[in-house]
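Lab meeting notes turned into a lecture example. A postdoc, R.K., suggested we walk through two folding results consecutively so the class can see how the record format repeats. The first protein's sequence and structure tokens come next.
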Amino acid sequence: MTSVLLVCAAGIKASAQSNEPWPEAKAWEWHQKVGWLVGCNFIPSTAINQLEMWQADSFDPTTIDRELGYAEGLGFNTARVFLHNLLWTQDSAGFLDRMEQFLKIADKHHIKPIFVFFDSCWDPNPKLGKQHEPKPFTHNSGWVQSPGREYISHPERLDELKVYIVGVLGHFKDDQRIAMWDLFNEPDNLNNNSYDKNEDPNKKQTTLVLLRKVFQWAREVNPSQPVSSGVWQGRWANKAVLEDFEKVQLLQSDVITFHNYGKPREVNVCIASLRNYHRPIVCTEYMARPAGSTFDPILGIFKKQDVGACNWGFVSGKTQTIFPWDSWTKAYTDEPPLWFHDILHPDGTPYKSQEVDYIRKITQASEAAGKAP
């Protein structure tokens, strides 16, 4: 526990920090410095979830190095990567060390990660230790929420999570290898058609409290990188009619982030709505081929409008996100006729060569970059 306290103490300035987001000018200065962020949501193909990615027994720097090399070859300069509070509880020093290893590999490939602290999606009962094998032909059959029901069903315990946020942020608060921090992924997601029957009945009330707290905790650390939480549903153009979650996410974020798995028209509407907040914009999730969310032309739209872009999925693997969301309610017995997410096979060959050519054209990837597929 001593090491935890030292890390936390190192991350907080003695004086109280403002609870307000960065001034707009500071956010735009950051944007000018990092440039157009383009990449993917990344987990190595050998991991089923965040715990398997980061735990000591299954951490796989060889695969991470190889697959981030593929990302560099596509011209990607960022990767959105999920963390988990249980990793801090299990072994805070070891977890920070593995994050450092990851950052060294990412930096070698000129990739600045976006780290995600909390996530309301999929299994509400995460467990440390060896993770189960994927359920055949099922999208994200092992992904886990952070925090799980042990906190969501006991909101009086939420403040216990502060040490995780402050510990990680305090350790990396001035690390220029990190692009930004995503504090909470889809906090109001109730996982309809997958784990909805296992969710706490008061989940939304509790996650709203936690969302507000995590912004406050982050402000206490005052990292040099921006913090954000992305909106994913609702109407965002008019600040006066925002829902409670969107009020926090849009009005507290230093940089605006959002998700959209729709067609080009829907993407353009989202971007136009979010321009009202006068801050840099990053789409941290998109690309679902059967839904009409495809790299061509959506990645080009993001580039033209100077909106950062991280598609979901990269190398097909244990998350099985080549299968669609409806694989939870519809039986699949083989590879789907059209991959839902992901870009590459495990050996680095493209799912669609034409698609990869388009990505590299938009990113202006060098032929010599990384280990291009």
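The second example is placed directly after the first for contrast:
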Amino acid sequence: MIDFADWLALREPADAAARSTELVRRLRARAPLVIHDLGSGTGSMVRWLAPQLPGPQHWVLHDRDPALLRRAVASLPAGVTAETRGGDLTRLTAADLAGASLVTASALLDMLTAEEVERIVGACAGAPALLTLSVIGQVELDPPDPLDAALAAAFDDHQRRTVGGRTLLGPDAAATAAAAFRRRGRPVEVRDTPWRLGSGALTEEWLTGWVGAACGQRIELTGRATAYAARRRDDMAAGRLGVVVGHADLLVPGIV
């Protein structure tokens, strides 16, 4: 397995291809913009979104990993300024996001608990939010295999696991966040934004992680999964494997 920063770099093109540009067009963003990006990582959201919005733009990049934030600031698009803020995203308040023209996040919600999502939704206050690429528990592989469904169910259970006293939302995160906004009287638009993968390095890493997480959740799958992974790698080598990994993007307009 590769390290997390390399994983972020590997998945960035697939993320960019999957996110909803339609929702971006519906933002009605007006310059100057102050954008708070939650869980910025190496800055994939700013690199994808900034060229689609009017300038000038100032981004506030939030992440608990200072090394990732340094990489993000080193690769900003032209005409964008940024500052970084470290710390625990789940403890953000409305005061931390005060003055935001937009709050963004990518591949974050499914790693949170229901309580943490509620807290982030509350912290957004009246600001618009674009929350992208939350997994929704849909995986399709072509050609199909008899073990696909069992591995997918085990992986979803792994995504919903309890770790350190935190029960993660996994594929329930997008729906939970949408419901939390709607309870506050905020409309939410949702778009399906799946990865569509063929043979390649990203598919190889995704397959390794997907099968490994499923077997970690249900150890009795391990023997059959080893043979399954070998079959899938043969499919990749022959150029006949297709994978669709379901995600959802949420757009929450601002309160006027």
